[in-house]
Design a protein that fits this description.
single chain, alpha+beta, seven-stranded antiparallel sheet, binds zinc ion, 2 domains, 401 residues, elongated
């Protein structure tokens, strides 16, 4: 799946119609969650039952009927994916607090499937044909949606962001593979001092824009609370904050994407820490959330480009990787402030460089074990629908207005 995004240009009344469609989507989703909660006892609620429920809602509420029927289904499918996630968390014994489906208050998108819209034959316009009254809007962007057959467009999503409205097309095409320029092997260690350090001794600097942006965002955030509640000034300060946030999340995405591409293009094996490992707290007091966010994004792109360049991306358990000597395997205890690794065996390395070599070695060891299955990719995230979600999530990361 590929997501093409355009900015939408329309009249004020059309934006209001989009808002109305977004509100309806939220209404259907929340109604479906309520329906599921109320009928937990008979436990017959599944995806199909929720779809049928959307038909019932259409009969009951006129404003639901005005939304395209497949868009209504998309809304109940959102409810179902929340419920489904809840069930699978239960099975995996993940603490329930966060997993149980909640009612949504800040929905910002409406999703059409293969009906309810039509693309203008020549120019960059799309018309929404249901009774919500959105009508024909202009699409601004450098993509060419006409390069893809209309049949391959599986989803059309309208999204409200801090700086306007966007139209996203999810196109069902194979991610074309490109050839690698080298067959290296690389271990990556995430740090705070550097964005990452690799097993060849290269240190990738933390991008300056993140540091700068962090300050600007904090400043914008404080400005909100200085303004009186309910006043226009406060609303404007909030908008400024949201726009800054959106800008950084775009920069962060571009940066991670560029690095992920570079790494996978030159390496047949890329190893990194599995930071999702439970109980793993790395430099917790120091870890800045902004770095954490960048890292998980970088990981998504690594896994994406690993597929594209036919490389192997392997996540390893980071336990002891910074303490162990990458040469002889001895444990050399060091505190956070110790920046170098000096072992009795004569091995002397920068701390993160040593860790990156350990990470690479762990990945090679785990591959030796797994290759008997000959399954190919060992990535923890598979391409497909999840990519659409990832990319989209990246897109809608900025806070609500
Ligand atoms: Zn040693």
């Amino acid at each position: 799946m590929l997501v093409l995004e355009y900015k939408v240009k329309a009249r004020q009344s059309q934006y209001q119609a989009i808002n109305e469609a977004i509100r309806t989507t939220q209404f259907i989703r929340n109604k479906a969650i309520r329906y599921w909660m109320d009928s937990l006892k008979d436990s017959k609620i599944n995806k199909i039952a929720l779809n049928n429920y959307s038909t019932a809602l259409r009969k009951e509420f006129k404003f639901v009927e005005e939304l395209n029927s497949m868009a209504c289904q998309s809304a109940t499918e959102r409810a179902w994916s929340a419920i489904d996630r809840f069930y699978s968390n239960c099975k995996k014994n993940v603490p329930l607090k966060k997993g149980s489906p909640r009612f949504q208050k800040d929905n910002r998108s409406v999703e059409y499937k293969t009906s309810g819209w039509s693309l203008h034959p020549t120019k960059r316009r799309i018309t929404f044909t249901d009774k919500k009254g959105i009508g024909e809007v202009k699409l601004l962007g450098k993509w060419d949606i006409h390069a893809y057959p209309a049949k391959s467009i599986k989803r059309v999503r309208l999204v409200k962001k801090a700086d306007g409205y966007y139209c996203q097309f999810a196109v069902d095409i194979e991610v074309s593979t490109e050839s690698r320029i080298a067959d290296g092997e690389l271990g990556l260690d995430v740090g705070l001092e550097f964005f990452y350090s690799d097993s060849n001794g290269h240190h990738e600097e933390n991008p300056r824009f993140l540091r700068k942006a962090q300050k600007a965002i904090k400043h914008a955030q404080r400005q909100i609370y200085k303004k009186e509640k309910g006043k226009n000034q406060r609303r404007k300060a909030r908008q400024r904050y949201a726009r800054k946030h959106l800008k950084v999340s775009r920069q962060r995405n571009e940066h991670s994407k560029r690095l992920g591409r570079c790494v996978c293009k030159a390496n047949a094996l890329v190893a990194y820490e599995d930071l999702n490992v439970k109980g793993m707290v790395k430099n917790h007091c120091l870890a800045k959330s902004i770095n954490d966010a960048s890292w998980s994004l970088f990981r998504h792109w690594l896994e994406y480009f690993a597929v594209k360049f036919n490389s192997q991306a392997v996540a390893v358990n980071p336990r002891m990787t910074s303490q162990k000597c990458s040469d002889c395997g001895a444990i050399v205890k060091k505190s956070l402030s110790t920046r170098s690794h000096v072992c009795g065996c004569g091995c002397e390395l920068q701390r993160d460089h040593n860790a990156a070599i350990n990470i690479l070695n762990l990945a090679k060891a785990s591959l030796g074990h797994k290759q008997s299955n000959a399954t190919g990719l060992v990535t923890s995230t598979l391409l497909g629908e999840t990519l659409v979600e990832q990319v989209t999530r990246v897109n809608v990361e900025s806070p609500t207005l």
